[in-house]
Amino acid sequence: MTTTLTSQQRDGIYAYVANILSESLNETRHPREVVALMSELTSVAQKAMSDVVEKWNLKARSVLCRLPPELLAQCFSWLVPRERAKVTTVSRYFRSVALAHPSLWAQIDFVSTTPRLEESLALLLERSGRAPLDVNVYSWSTGVTSLLAPQMPRIRTLTVNTTRSTSWIFEHPASLLEVLNIPERGDRDWLLTTLPPSTWAPPLRRLELPSVFILPEAGGPYNRVTHFSGYMTTTGRRDGPANTDAHTLFDVFPYLETLKLFFRNEDETTIEHMPNSPTPRTLMHLTLHADGDGSVIAPTLTLWRGHPFRTVHLFCRRTQLVTPILDHMRSVAPGPWHLELSGSARCIIKTETERVYNLYRDGDRVRFIHFRDDFDSLASITIPAHGVQDQLIETLRLPELHSITLRGPFPSTLFSLFSEGKLCVPRLQTLRLEPETLFDDKAGEEAEMKNCSRFGQGFLWCISLDDGVRLSKLPRLVLSTTVSQYVREKYWDWIYQRAVSVSIEGDLLYKA
């Protein structure tokens, strides 16, 4: 039901306003006074409507309005920043409560498409008063940086997406700063970050720089920094900033847990510029990212031979890094190891103690044959089914291997018809088949299940024991859950003759 004015109410309002205006106009002939009078009448009418609507708002939201202002402000804090701004338009009471709590406006999160970014930033900085700030902002313009620079003493976390300079960040003390993250570069070929002494930001824990950097020579170490990333090299422009000299990095950051170093022009990198003071015992996570061929990574990894990293991520363009990876693994864990090759350019090697080495590369994928010299250290392998036929072209002996996982999608050709190689795996206990699951239709899924069955059956014919005799029965066959609704199909009958036990994940399906 729509509520509108009755004809009598409308006529009454009209007559009342007309009467006031007519009486006032009788006393003046100046147009300016007429305009002022009309404006005042409009203002009074708007205030009357606002007051009545406010009372109606208070009554309609009586439950919320009975909450203490502090509790109501806590409710507002559960909203995302954009929704908090909408709260101020609901009622004057809500607005007064929201504006009376500066901490509600201390979380600043802007992207490059934020309308009137500089105006919005200035408004939030004003509303936040003296509250500690958490800022995530796009700062390509000098207007944004000029607004933020004076606020550094009260900024707790600062994420800057794309910036022309980093010097403005260090102009003022940052006594509350815990996180400084600059994930994107404006022009990293020209950008240089000169780090101030540790007294600039005593509580700093995380520091991610978008450029080459200069470490402080005095002022003591950053004892609380656990995460650091930065660039070792630029593109090598003569008129650009010099490459990083990081040989004192571990002296400046003695309690690092995570280190990420990026290389662009690797020919300009020398081992003398790499961190060479004692490695922090706390350092558990290492990332080395080379835009070039990765030639700098091998000697860099050698610097930390014997250091027990928990995770290592290497990005490069060539597979020869398999050798330095395995060399480093031997220095901390002799084996057994677990190898996982993906269909893309990634391989993962794990130790028994869950130390993980990830290798990413552009171009051709990492191949199983690259691990030939360390086959006796492999306890399990996970490999894409479509890559097995190309790689298994000779007899390969893996004396300690106890588990093989084949991942889909599976090729439609029968494996044994095209494979000339054999796997000699005297200790093999488990073969696991994982068909692809992302299909748009039922027909595609059914075809994958048939291909998986045919491929698995053929693959078993290529497995032999020490004496070259083919494996008669697999001790354990494991199928992923996607096979469960197809396992009764006739094309899966072979599994009961070729396996001692068959499981679908943890559920036993068959045991001889």
TrEMBL record:
Gene3D superfamilies: 1.20.1280.50. It holds the Pfam family F-box-like. Residues 61-108 form the F-box domain. It comes from Exidia glandulosa HHB12029. This is F-box domain-containing protein.
